[in-house]
Amino acid sequence: MSFQYKNVLVTGATSGLGLALAEKMIEVGCFVIAVARREDRLKALAEKHGADKVAAEPFDMTNLDGMPAWVEKMTKTYPKLDSIVLNAGIQRSIKFTQPSSISLPLVNQEIITNYTSPLTMSILFLPHLQSLSPAPASIILVSSGLAFVPMPRCASYCATKAAIHSLAWTMRYQLSADEGSKHVKVVEIIPPAVKTELHTQQEDLSAKGIGQIGISIEEFMEDAWTGLTEGKEEIPVGKFVKDRAENEAERGRKKIMLGMIETLKAQGMDP
Q1: Which residues are catalytic?
Q2: Using CA atoms, how far apart are residues 113 and 63, in angstroms rounded to an integer?
Q3: Whole-angstrom Cα distance, residue 96 to residue 3?
Q4: Mean pLDDT score, 175-196
Q5: How far is residue 136 from each of residues 56, 159, 176, 183, measured CA to CA in Å?
Q6: CA distances from 166 to 8, 119, 159, 214, 263 (A)
């Protein structure tokens, strides 16, 4: 199989996983709408690949008030847009033992960037993606292996990724069960720690010389791209994450969810 989407919007497209995914999609012939805050990096990406392959669209994912107008602009400017990759994310450390050291504005920024923004963007882009029926469309969410087993140091980050994992399950069920929406696939890429700026930008890690942790970008792309081209809806990356995504506890959770849905339907309730 091959990657079936041709016009893809990627958030966080100028570094790390977002850049790797964007450049791979460009390589296989997709037109990529690259979204990020840093205009200099967007310009460099556009100049590298050319205007016929990539469009640079600067936007701050925390700007929730401006998002409705921006999404409307995107769908009007790029009417063939058939997939959105919601990748932008930040990770910060929290020390509950030192509550006075916790910046609540930074905590809220992390929650908005990692969860509220992808949720809001999914809702705002859905009418456009639904209108493409019966042609395939997709919402591709990037979560984390920390959605399964949280790391105490980055408590808020883990909580947001667990929320994205749960959101993928529920949004996927709703859309797949609706005749006018089932062409919109909800895909979740679940990476382990990867050597990107997500870690090197954290002062507490860099000061200890351990900012470069995890697998390489190349290793990430091997699993992620295989899953995307095979049309998988849940794509765990690397052995650590695969073991947790496919273990008995996770399978049990899915079974319980489906059982709960059937119980509610049997009682005449909307699950």
Answers
A1: 157
A2: 9
A3: 43
A4: 95
A5: 24, 31, 12, 5
A6: 23, 11, 11, 24, 19
The tokens of 258 are what? Answer: 């489906």
Q: For the segment 2-15, what is each residue's pLDDT rounded down to a tens digit?
A: 899 999 999 999 99
Contacts of 9 (CB under 8 A, 6+ apart): 32, 33, 35, 57, 74, 78, 81, 83, 84, 85
Amino acid identity, position 236: P
The one-letter amino acid at 255: K
Kindly state the percentage of the chain with pLDDT values over 90: 89
For residue 158, with 0-12 CB atoms within 10 Å meaning exposed, 13-18 middle and 19 or more buried, which class applies? buried
What is residue 201's predicted lDDT score, i.e. its pLDDT?
52
Tokens of 236: 């765990």
Average pLDDT over residues 31-45: 96
What contacts 18, CB < 8 A, 6 or more positions away? Answer: 10, 11, 12, 36, 85, 87, 88
User: Whole-model pTM?
Assistant: 0.93
CB 130 within 8 A of CB 75: no
What gap in Å lies between CA 74 and CA 256, rounded to an integer?
39
Query: In angstroms, what is the C-alpha Rg of the chain?
Result: 19
In three-state secondary structure terms, 216 is: coil
Residue 180: both structure tokens together: 């006018």
Q: 103 to each of 93, 169, 173, how far by Cα in Å?
A: 10, 31, 36
Average per-residue pLDDT for the chain: 93
Higher-pLDDT residue of 249 and 142 is 142
For residue 29 the two structure tokens come to: 């012939």
Span 227-250, average pLDDT: 94
- Residue type present at position 237: V
